């Protein structure tokens, strides 16, 4: 299961729309490791003038790796996090997360990061099972 949805939030979703704030709070509580990584790259980006920041430290366990994968593989979760933090997220391997300024999307650094070449250059034998 991707998210631990409180009963009250599930009932609201069954009867209509929920807010981004409610959804993002559910993500924060359900996927704490993913939340920490993504909030850190977004915070780091805010404190620089650069186009992007990234986090490339492998998760400490498969549990944390699973949280990161669930957060970034779901369009709804990824989109909610991107709207909340005001960034475009990019993902390589099973752990390298980058936050790009929205103005950098489509630019050279972003295109290099999301390219097949970028993915291939970010491979190593120790990451084969990630």
Which helices and strands appear, and what pairs or packs with what?
Layout: H1 7-15, H2 20-30, H3 32-46, E1 52-55, H4 62-73, H5 75-85, E2 87-92, E3 96-101, H6 108-114, H7 116-121
Antiparallel strand pairs: 1-3, 2-3
Helix pairs in contact: 2-3, 2-5, 3-4
Short structural summary:
The protein has helices at 7-15, 20-30, 32-46, 62-73, 75-85, 108-114, 116-121, and strands at 52-55, 87-92, 96-101. It is of the alpha+beta class.
Report on this model:
Pfam families: KH_NucS_shadow. The chain is an alpha+beta fold. The protein has one domain. 55% of the residues lie in helices and 12% in strands. It contains seven helices and three strands. The chain has helices at residues 7-15, 20-30, 32-46, 62-73, 75-85, 108-114, 116-121, and strands at residues 52-55, 87-92, 96-101. A three-stranded antiparallel β-sheet has the order 1-3-2, with helices on both faces. The radius of gyration is 15 Å and the shape is globular. The relative contact order is 0.14.
